[in-house]
Automatic annotation (TrEMBL):
Toprim domain span: 3-112
Site positions per UniProt: Interaction with DNA: 33, 138-139, 142, 154, 285, 473
Renumbered residue ranges of the record's region Disordered: 827-852
Species: Chryseobacterium angstadtii
Reaction(s) catalysed by this chain's protein: ATP-independent breakage of single-stranded DNA, followed by passage and rejoining
Job of this protein: Releases the supercoiling and torsional tension of DNA, which is introduced during the DNA replication and transcription, by transiently cleaving and rejoining one strand of the DNA duplex. Introduces a single-strand break via transesterification at a target site in duplex DNA. The scissile phosphodiester is attacked by the catalytic tyrosine of the enzyme, resulting in the formation of a DNA-(5'-phosphotyrosyl)-enzyme intermediate and the expulsion of a 3'-OH DNA strand. The free DNA strand then undergoes passage around the unbroken strand, thus removing DNA supercoils.
Name of protein: DNA topoisomerase 1
Family listed: Belongs to the type IA topoisomerase family.
Residues of the Topo IA-type catalytic domain: 128-572
GO BP of this protein: DNA topological change
Length: 852
């Protein structure tokens, strides 16, 4: 029996730590938080702000196991992560497992190495209640904001929406950037580039130091340049240095992994978590660039042995952010002697961290920058060529590259040939190109993280979940935006002749950048109009500062909550009572055929166009917007085009054919089959021949690939990946199978497994009532329609066995359902004829009750 029980957050970490501790220690994992606020209901006493924590259903078995292990141990070591979340996990464990102060110790470490673990065991402490309270304050405040603001959105915008303190601010950033892009008016100017030759025919590329606003000015310059003798007017050589960037924080790692490796924020954090748990890097949630003395010494040793003493330049960095916790370390390798690791995907991220940390401890690169001025006294402006030579590569040696991440790719700096002042040069070609100014770029994931960090919104642990949430809520997406085309003028001077041509240039296209959805814009506008303070960047940053003060013991968390809620709740009530409904309604104009107004707005199924008013005798007609169209930008002409859909075509193989657009985009309908029209194809341009082609492709794709017990088997790809279909069963095909070349034995195996699973799925089923008792991942449950319900315990407080559930009557199951949802079997009321009147009556009653 082990005298010591160590509880960590993850099984991977437990496995690594177990290797370093002797047989007197047993290491177990809590798999993150063992308890939290309840999923249903707010779970907070709003009079005292006391949270009502509960052990989640999927953790009850684990908690029972941990309690049993605690009874056997003399000392329990709580070894969750070193941040506020980790401290809260330790506190919840201590409380739920009833650990007494004399039988528990709290240990923290920045890295999972033998030295770090043993050092932590030698230097235990107790749970830091200030850190716990800071985490509780964040959790409670965010729960209150979400639970009170979201129902307002359900009433005023659309059911099923959600709001959150950090997520709503992140959406606001993306919406405001999109509006800025729409309102941007590009300005044209002419930029001149020249290629000059010295007496040995070596090329020197240079740029004119000034742009011209008008075409005539650029053409006049080229005319003058025809007969100009170009000379080297000045050659300036000056020494310079380049210094390495600081080691990684969570934010800078996410940004660099995005730009260099193409990883999204969630993927980066998942891989970094694995690197940390397997002992390769220090803790990956940090806002500090600080390195321990041990790390600085380790880097120095590696640099000296690999590159030489002249490359070593030990230093420590300080964080610019006032809220950064300097006690923490930057993200770095735990052992600089480990240059690479076996797992290819993990190794790519590890290499990024390894090189960045090593480079931060290396000497500056020494460069020699050369600037050559080319022109003539008779010309109003001169050309300038820039180049540089690396005299000493310094930290660049670690990167194996010449450019750092801060370099501009278009800076035209390169090695230049040697020239003297007064030397005559001939021009090979001088080009004047019309260039348009560009609006600010849309946010990438990395760019959004950087902006949130700059504004002081969120903390290292919040960036990835925030970005994931706003995409899951469908407030923003990364849809591809098609380019537009415009004409640009290009003039070239070669051999004393000016050639002018008009070219086509694509602009405005984008991919893998955040774009707000229609519903995202409507929700953002409603929240910024009605909850200015919550959506204010400064307010959100001040809340983060308050959490920091609580963590430092300078503020009491419940006092902070009382102060916040006393202003927040009255605003909720006011908006709920008085704010207008938000639909993003935009009047586009009048339909020339009917003389009725045409609106673009949010409807029940998303963005749509409406002709006519809801209060008209004749009902309005509707059409869905197509992918790429937007309420804020669609024109009247584009909107009216949508009403040409659906349209009928001739029958094909005895079945009617039509073209339309629905919730999932444009389609060809053949009989009862809906076939998606390929992305980017205009449904209005689909002819009879094209429709038949699309149907033919679908028939080919749906053709049976095999048979099972005499029945055809087809295959396809859906939202959950590749599948095969047998009768009414859709069977997912795991990655271990070659989907393109499934053998008959593969198909038999997949269908057999699915049929066996389906046979074991139902314990009892009442199809007519849409009620069933099913086997689930965590045990049996009741399903009614799409809703799931728990099976209560028997009178003797024991659980039902599967055999007993086979004998339970339908009436008993119905009682279980109504005990959990009183309105489950209530008849749905038909909507009242006069909705508006009914709402007003309710509102009056509410107000009266309040005054009373």
């Amino acid at each position: 029996m082990s005298k010591n029980l160590v509880i960590v957050e993850s099984p991977a970490k437990a496995k690594t730590i177990q290797k370093y501790l002797g047989k007197d220690f047993e290491v177990k994992s809590s798999f993150g938080h063992i308890r939290d606020l309840p999923k249903k209901g707010m779970g907070i006493d709003l009079a005292t702000f006391s949270p009502d924590y509960e052990v989640s259903a999927d953790k009850k078995k684990l908690v029972t196991e941990l309690k049993a292990a605690v009874k056997k141990a003399e000392m329990v070591w709580l070894a969750s992560d070193e941040d506020r979340e980790g401290e809260a996990i330790a506190w919840h464990l201590a409380d739920e497992l009833k650990l007494k102060p004399e039988n528990r110790k709290r240990i923290v470490f920045h890295e999972i190495t033998k030295n770090a673990i043993l050092k932590a065991i030698e230097n235990p402490r107790d749970i830091d209640q200030n850190l716990v309270n800071a985490q509780q304050a964040r959790r409670v405040l965010d729960r209150i904001v979400g639970f009170e603001m979201s129902p307002v959105l359900w009433k005023k915008v659309k059911p099923g929406l959600s709001a959150g303190r950090v997520q709503s601010v992140a959406v606001r950033l993306i919406v405001e950037r999109e509006k800025e892009i729409r309102e941007f008016v590009p300005k044209a100017s002419f930029k001149l580039d020249g290629i000059f030759l010295n007496n040995t025919e070596q090329e020197i590329a240079a740029k004119l130091k000034k742009d011209f606003e008008k075409e005539e000015e650029a053409e006049k310059f080229l005319e003058k340049a025809k007969t100009t003798e170009f000379k080297v007017l000045n050659v300036e050589t000056r020494p310079g240095t380049r210094s390495a960037s600081a080691p990684f924080t969570t934010s800078t790692l996410q940004q660099e992994a995005s730009s260099r490796l193409g990883y999204n924020v969630t993927n980066t954090m998942r891989l970094a978590q694995r690197l940390y748990e397997e002992g390769y890097i220090t803790y990956m949630r940090t806002d500090s660039v600080n390195l321990s003395q041990e790390a600085i010494e380790g880097a120095k040793k590696q640099i000296t042995s690999e590159y030489g003493a002249e490359y070593s330049s030990p230093r420590n960095y300080t964080t610019k952010s006032a809220s950064a916790q300097e006690a923490h370390e930057a993200i770095r390798p735990t052992d600089f002697a480990v240059k690479s690791i076996g797992d290819a995907q993990l190794n790519r991220l590890y290499q990024l961290i390894y090189r960045r940390t090593l480079a931060s401890q290396m000497a500056n690169a020494k460069i020699e920058k050369t600037v050559i001025e080319i022109g003539n006294a008779s010309l109003p402006q001169h050309f300038e060529a820039q180049g540089e030579v690396i005299i000493f590569d310094g930290f660049l040696k670690a990167y194996g590259i010449v450019k750092t991440e801060d370099d501009d790719e278009d800076n035209n700096e390169k090695l230049l040939p040697k020239v003297k002042v007064g030397e005559i040069l001939s021009y090979k070609k001088i080009t004047a190109s019309e260039k348009f100014t560009r609006p600010s770029a849309r946010y990438t994931e990395a760019g959004l993280v950087k902006k949130l960090e700059e504004l002081g919104i969120g903390r290292p642990s919040t960036y990835a979940p925030t970005i994931q949430t706003i995409q899951n809520r469908e407030y923003v997406d990364k849809r591809e935006l098609e380019s537009q085309t415009r004409e640009v003028i290009k003039m070239s001077l070669t051999k004393d002749k000016i050639k002018k041509e008009v070219l086509e240039e694509k602009f405005g296209g984008d991919k893998n950048k955040f774009v707000p959805t229609d519903i995202g814009e409507v929700v953002n506008d409603f929240l910024t109009d009605n909850f200015k303070e919550i959506l204010d960047y400064g307010f959100t940053a001040r809340v983060e500062e308050s959490f920091d003060e609580i963590a430092n013991g300078d503020q009491k968390w419940k006092e902070m909550m009382t102060n916040f809620y006393s202003k927040f709740h009255p605003r909720i009530e006011d908006v709920e009572e008085n704010a207008d409904r938000a639909t993003g309604d935009r009047l586009l104009g009048v339909d020339p055929k009917t003389g009725k107004n045409v609106h673009a707005r949010i409807g029940r199924f998303g963005a749509m166009i409406q002709i006519g008013e809801t209060e008209d005798e004749e009902k309005p007609i509707f059409a869905s917007l197509m992918a790429g169209q937007n309420i804020a930008t669609i024109s009247l002409a584009e909107a009216l085009e949508l009403f040409k859909l659906p349209f009928e075509l001739n029958e094909f193989e005895g079945q009617p054919v039509s073209v339309g657009v629905g919730r999932f985009g444009p389609y060809v309908k053949w009989g009862e089959t809906f076939i998606s029209i390929p992305k980017g194809e205009d449904p209005l341009s689909v002819s009879q021949a094209r429709a038949e082609e699309i149907i033919g492709e679908k028939k080919k794709a749906d053709a049976p690939i095999a048979s099972y017990k005499g029945e055809p088997v087809t295959k396809g790809s859906g939202r959950f990946g590749p599948f095969i279909k047998y009768k009414d069963l859709f069977i997912n095909v795991p990655k271990r199978y070659n989907f393109e070349n499934l053998s008959q034995s593969d198909i038999d195996e997949l269908i057999d497994a699915k049929l066996e699973k389906e046979a074991n799925r139902y314990i009892q089923q009442w199809e007519k009532e849409k009620i069933s008792i099913e086997n689930g991942r965590w045990g049996p449950f009741v399903k009614f329609g799409k809703a799931m319900f728990k099976i209560p315990k028997k009178k003797d407080e024991t659980k039902y066995e599967a055999e007993e559930l086979k004998e339970v009557s339908l009436d008993e199951v119905k009682k279980w359902i109504t005990d959990q949802d009183k309105n489950a079997f209530a008849e749905k009321k038909k909507p009242a004829a006069k909705k508006t009147a009914a709402k007003k009556t309710t509102a009056v009653k509410k107000t009266a009750a309040k005054k009373k």
